[in-house]
Each structure stands twice: as structure tokens, then as C-alpha cells.
Amino acid sequence: MNQPLAYIHPEAKIAQNVVVEPFTTIDQDVEIGEGTWIGPNVTIMAGARIGKNCKIFPGAVIAAQPQDLKFAGEKTTVYIGDNTVIRECVTVNRGTVDKLKTVVGANCLLMAYVHVAHDCVIGNNCILANTVQVAGHVEIGDYAIVGGSSAIHQFVHIGQHAMISGGSLIRKDVPPFVKAGREPLTYVGINSIGLRRRGFSDQKIAEIQQLYRLLFLSGLNNAAALDQIELELAPSPERDEVVNFIRNSGRGVIKGYSRNGNGNSE
């Protein structure tokens, strides 16, 4: 159902049962899947690819040009996965020549005033709380949760199932399965409650805890800790995910917490 007070470009591809509320603008080269609701005063610009059963609330701007001075008008896109909810005044910018796209996965929740910059890749089932600001080229794994008013530096990677405290300044990579907090941002344990909710067994959670004891609480640097992890712990998808994440980190990972307030050396 399209309201007469909305503007929809005739070349936009919109499924029959999409609801578009008044005063919304939908540009050309836009695709919107079945069952999606587009609230009033939403702006959807060229290059948007929005999945099925999404909800986009008033004031959101999807697929605006990237805020990158190197952008030269190349044709790029934004992908929004199925069942994702985008709340009031969220902005999701198109990609640049780097990835040519910005991606927000399925079943995500982007709360009010979140900004997702160019060339970001956000996995499935992620939650970005109110006013989280995501700089360009950031990658966030599945099921990650970022607390409100946090700011993520460009090129940072956040691992799957990580949970980050509100108000955090995220300057370095956050490994999978952990909780992170304090300033500067440090490891404060594994996300055991979240893991249990997602079906991880007590045995698997204990294995992940042991892995991070070696990595962050043993006093070893990261290279030595990874060698020890591979020596002591049997291969598993979770072990290999963490080891590969640490070894491939471009910005370096957050430090482990210690009682004297200092992190472990990297």
C-alpha cells in the first residue's frame, strides 16, 4: 500500500505488499522485498537493496553517498538483510571503490541514530544500540551486540558473539565470544549468558573460557599464547575462529584485564 503523499521513482522495484507511509522518498535503482514497512519521512536513495519483512522507521536515510572524500561517484550499493529493523534517524551509507557495498545482515536491530559508514559489513542477528557510530570499513560478526553511544574506529573488526559495553571507544579489534568494557577497552570475560542463550553447551563455554585464560590472563604475549592454545586445546570451530581472528588482526586486539589496571602485552 503506497500513500499518495510518498514519492516513489517509477524505476524502483518494490514488492506488491510493501507498505510505504506518507512523505517518504524512494529513488531509482532501489529494490525492496516483500512484507517490508517503510515509515513516514524515510529517504531511500539509489543503490539500496532492502530484504523481506524489514521495518524502517521515520527519519532514516538508506544508501546516501559515502562521507569519504575519495568517493568519485562510482556505482555502489547498500544491502539490508531480511527481518532487519532500522529505527528512527539511522543512516546507512553506500560503499566506495574499496568494497562497492555496505552490508547489514538479516535479523539485525539498529536502534535510533545509529550511523553505519561506507564499506562496513555487519553480520546477522547483530544489535547496535542507540547512537552507535560505526566508521568506514568496519566488520562486525554475527550475534555481536554494541552498547549505546559507542564509537567504532575505521577498519576495526568485532568478532561473532562479542558484547561491548555502552559508551565504549573501540579502537582495536574485539575477538569473538568476549565481553569488553572499561576505558581503554579491555577484555572483561566471555559472553557466557549470550552463548547459553544461543545453544552453546556448558562444556563448550568452559573450553572458550580456558582459551581466553591462556590468551589474556597467562602473562604471555599474543604470539606465545596462540602457540600455547594450539598445543593445549583440541581443534574446534571456536578455537580456530579465535586463533585466526587474532592472527589476522590488522589493528591489534584489545588487551586483557588485570587487577593492577594494566593489560597484558601484545
Core attributes:
alpha/beta, 4 helices, 26% strand, disordered C terminus, Trimer_LpxA-like_sf
Which spans of ≥5 residues are poorly predicted at pLDDT below 50? 260-266
Mean model confidence by pLDDT: 94
Biggest beta-sheet profile? 11 strands, mixed
- N→C terminal distance: 56 Å
| Number of separate helices | 4
Helix content: 10-25%
User: In percent terms, what proportion of residues is strand?
Assistant: 25-35%
Radius of gyration: 20 Å
Strand order of the largest sheet: 3-6-9-12-15-18-21-24-26-27-28
Q: What's the overall geometry?
A: elongated
Count of distinct strands: 28
The helix-and-strand class reads alpha/beta
Pfam family, one: Hexapep
Keywords: Acyltransferase, Lipid A biosynthesis, Lipid biosynthesis, Lipid metabolism, Transferase
Organism: Hymenobacter glacieicola
Protein name: Acyl-[acyl-carrier-protein]--UDP-N-acetylglucosamine O-acyltransferase
What do you see in this structure?
By secondary structure, this protein is of the alpha/beta class. The chain has helices spanning 192-197, 202-216, 222-232, 237-247, and strands spanning 7-8, 13-14, 19-20, 25-26, 31-32, 37-38, 43-44, 48-50, 55-56, 61-64, 77-80, 85-86, 91-93, 101-104, 109-110, 115-116, 121-122, 127-128, 133-134, 139-140, 145-146, 151-152, 157-158, 163-164, 169-170, 178-181, 186-190, 255-256. Strand 26 and strand 27 form a beta hairpin. Helix 2 (202-216) runs antiparallel to helix 3 (222-232) and helix 3 (222-232) packs antiparallel against helix 4. The protein is elongated, with a radius of gyration of 20 Å. Mean pLDDT is 94; it is low at 260-266.
